[in-house]
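Suppose you are handed a protein chain with no further information: no name, no annotation, nothing but its sequence. What can you learn? This example shows the usual starting point.
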Amino acid sequence: VNGEEGTIKGFEIGGNTFFDFLPGILSNFGVQANYTYVDSEAPSPTAVDSAGRALIVPLEFLSKNSYNLVGFYEDGPLNVRVAYNWRDDYVVTTAGNGTGNLPIYNADFGQLDASVSYDFNEHVSLSVDASNLLDEERHTYQAFPGRPRDYVLNDRRIGFRLRLRN
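A reasonable first move is to predict its three-dimensional structure. Written in structure tokens, the prediction is:
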């Protein structure tokens, strides 16, 4: 269902670099970063204030602020990457069941991930991937942060991958 008129504006900035100007092993390090700002609003199709006017809420699934910061190391067959991703809270829905027509938000959330891979030769490589290293939990709230709705334990995950190629 299409809603009424809304607005969205913002910007994104990002970049990456190798530190190849540094001596020796330090020249194999690099960094990548980006930041996104999005300001959005629209009348909720279901939620109203005490006077019966539509609540003005951000567009669904758009955080006002988000960023990613990645550090990496690449040296021949060895690749290492550590990434931190973060985003502000955001509206999940404005029409959830049992919500009294109040918007449901995902709370702000950050996650640290890492990976290491090694190419033994052109046919065999081994990787270790880890996600949510800080064992962060996600949670939602109804209209206000003081009204928790649910908590999700995402667990820390580590996976191994052996790759064989012809």
